Amino acid sequence: MLVSGEGTNLQALLDEALPVVAVASNKPGARALERARAAGVPTAVFELADYPDRAARDTAMADWLEERGVRLVVLAGYMHLLTPPFLARFPDAVVNVHPSLLPAFPGAHAIEEQLAAGVAESGATVHLVDEGIDSGPVLAQERVPVLPGDTAETLHERIKAVEHRLLPKVVRELCAR
Ligand code: GAR
After folding, report:
1. Radius of gyration of the chain (CA)
2. pTM of the model as a whole
3. Is the C-beta atom of 5 inside 6 A of ligand 1?
4. Does 6 sit in the ligand 1 pocket, CB within 6 Å?
5. Which of 26, 99, 109, 153 is the most buried (most CB within 10 A)?
6. Residue 91 in contact with residue 131, Cβ under 8 Å?
């Protein structure tokens, strides 16, 4: 799994005993790394600043994942774009979870943008990753209502509750392929 933040989606996969064999992050302080360590899963940090460019960083990260036998890469709150050299190493085997009804509201500020747009409905999407920003074929999607008085925090919590159900379900199906 690739993570940058809290790691609640990582936790959902761990809690369902899915075979998480390695967790990598672009951020050394990510809470997600603590969750992985607590579960005894190998972790590594690949900070952009330590490499000449993104492609070099992504190649090092792909090498590390491959060495650990990774066959499916799950982006769970991983907030960097992956370069073509990385995606070529795991063809049709990189998935992402995103807090909107994609293709609506891609990007890093989906929650705030949905509230600003005044949408009545948001959602959670799990999709295959391609070279675009939160693009690629949708594998699963579920609607989440936006309620009066919602803040970014309350809406994101409601969406995450759905993500924690949807992502493990899709990952389980992909592992059984
Ligand atoms: C999740 O809500 C995920 O959908 C979102 O980041 C959060 C990570 O939470 N991802 C994106 O916005 C990707 N564009 P977590 O670290 O607690 O799993």
Report:
1. 16
2. 0.97
3. yes
4. yes
5. 99
6. no
